[in-house]
Design brief:
The structure is a single chain. The chain is of the alpha+beta class. It has one domain. Helices cover 30% and strands 19% of the residues. A five-stranded mixed beta sheet has the order 2-1-3-5-4, sandwiched between helices. Strand 4 and strand 5 form a beta hairpin. The longest helix is centred in the N-terminal third of the chain and has 12 residues. It is globular. The termini are far apart.
Length: 118
Amino acid sequence: MKSRDQLFLLTPLFLDRAAGAGPFHCPECAQIEGLLGYFPFLRSRLDVSYVDFGRPRPAIIALLGAENQSCPVLVLGGAAPAGIAVLHHVPTNRDFVAGAAAIATYLAAAHGISQSHP
């Protein structure tokens, strides 16, 4: 049985002293938040978690390893639809999609939302 896809987004209003005074938000996470607003049924189909900007991000590392803890990231609960490019983390045997554009493409194929306009 397929488990639910797990979406990880950065909590908004974070500080990053290296980038300036802040507070900041992640533009790609904001894009995915926009999709969740357009298609609210996605929240009932996905496990959405918010993680702090600072690293390490233990919840993501547990699934994908330290080298794959960027956000946004969607960890698949099962097989991806045919033709959808996914990344695979060998040690934990988990498929995932990283970045707003790739996540939007996956959500269109797997959950029936509209495709992003080219």
